[in-house]
Amino acid sequence: MVRAVAAEFVKLFTTRVWAWLVGVVVLLAAGITGIAAVNVSTGDGPPAEVLLVLLIVLGPVAFVVSAVVGITALTGEFRHQTATSTFLAEPRRPVVVAAKLLVYLIFGALLGAVFVGVMLLVGFPIMHSRSITGDVGHPAYHLARIVVGAIGAIALFAPFGVGFGALVRNQPTAITISAVYLVAAENIMLAFRSGRAIYPYTPGGAAKSMIIPHDRIHEVFDVSGVHMLGGLGGTITLAVWALGLSILGSVVAVSRDVS
Amino acid sequence: MRVGEPPGRIVVAALSKTFAGGIRAVDNLSFTVEPGSVTGFLGPNGAGKTTTLRMILGLVRPTSGTATVGGRRYVALPNPLRHVGACLEASSFYPGRTARNHLRVYCAHAGLPGKRAAEVLELVGLSAAGRRRVKGFSLGMRQRLALATAMLGDPPVLIMDEPTNGLDPEGIRWLRGFLRELAGQGRTILVSSHLLAEVQQTVDRVVILSAGRCVRQGSMAELAGGRGPTTLVRTPQVDALMAVLTSRGVGLTRVDATAVRIDGLPVPDIGHAAFEAGCEIHEMRADQADLERVFFELTSQPPSQPHVGPTYGQPPYQPPYQPPYQGPGQGGPW
Ligand SMILES: Nc1ncnc2c1ncn2[C@@H]1O[C@H](COP(=O)(O)OP(=O)(O)O)[C@@H](O)[C@H]1O
Ligand SMILES: [Mg+2]
Ligand nearest B51 Cα, by number? Predict the structure, then answer.
């Protein structure tokens, strides 16, 4: 397992893909936050509040990027036919999947930290210079809670992608489905009563409960009939998604013949 | 695991694979590859070679039967890269990674120091291209890189699927020398090909596959011996020669107006018969196409016919007695 994890790290850092990804995430975060910070007014609340709203509205974009990273990590092995060499080196295929889960959880956390970090570095100085300051009525811990929650959610979407890729195996299909699902399908779900009942347990719903401080959930995300989980509940739910898909994928798809 | 099994022995026992759609690619196949030998795994395209090799390597799950290396199934080998090196078709490299970095991935997998990558690049003559990205590599360079990957763990067993595909004549000559050298170090080598001529200079033994079944296994000499020597004779009086030989019960085939192929008779005897028949000999030589013909006949029979080859656990196929052949050509390269 240690060797498989080491090999995944070597794989990740011996192509330029990781650098491109970090670049994309930086541009995305800087662009979104820059535009928002220039346009908000004092009435929109203190900077921490602006950050929270931005993460809720645009977080799914970061989730998709992170999920795509995980999906590519797994499906790329089949797409480029490196699966043969990988499984020759480690014929216990669940070990390969487990190594990817761990490595991409770490890399996802890196992407999350970059995403949220750039938002803070770009958004706060701009808002400050426009005299949008203060945290009136919002204890400082909320900012820390939001930042940690967002990084955690983005991080967990990478192993979620690994699991989803393990199940689907076909790269374009997996990327398309996950993007459409995270950006559109979960929101459409909220329009239906049955959809609202399961929404808190969906990956996107779980991620939201990781980002929004629980005592403020009714203020920020108020959809009647939706009973959001707490931060820990959301974290566990998203982790279970990643693990569950990985196990299912390992049994159903990754174990298939490589020929 | 069978205790006491030599680490280099490959045992395939009653192996079968039926793909979805009912294609029986491998059918009750059994053979053994002994340590320290180069074994050619031969058969026409679609005979089931790739499927068999992939089953040995744990990439394809057998429908029934087992394949072991050193007494263990591949999946049960601790650190398999140090035990078995494999070069397979349809295995590829990430195009954006350099050759050296590709090798470092598998160094990490096998727990080898990164400097081993440079050593195997040197071994296959690819040092100069180590820092280049694989997407610019020619087919021959890719084959060498695949071989370098297989050699990373310095394995006692090497399994190669059609390694000469895509190599130019120079590359093929290089590969032959390389394989002979590795065999000389006592490694077990199993190399597949759909062309006997490609490997006959390299291999000690052959396992011949047709429609998923083993039709013959044994040494190269046994393969040739199954038919006895064959001699091609060119003479203007071909009819006279054929008449005298036929009267003695010698098997022969007319090739064209001036040539006949004679089975089983030592060259001095053919010369004597020709002398008696008053034939003027223009050419007399061992028929080089002979082994290729054996191979063709073995593998071109329809799969429904019962096959004559030995099966697992039985002694190798013994042809009816033929006088030992001492003629020219036998000291040839195989
Ligand atoms: N993944 C697969 N699915 C279905 N049929 C397959 C698959 N792989 C190989 N076959 C079939 O199995 C037979 C043997 O193929 P293969 O092992 O590749 O032969 P060889 O390597 O000797 O050319 C062929 O008829 C081929 O079409
Ligand atoms: Mg083949």
Answer: 1
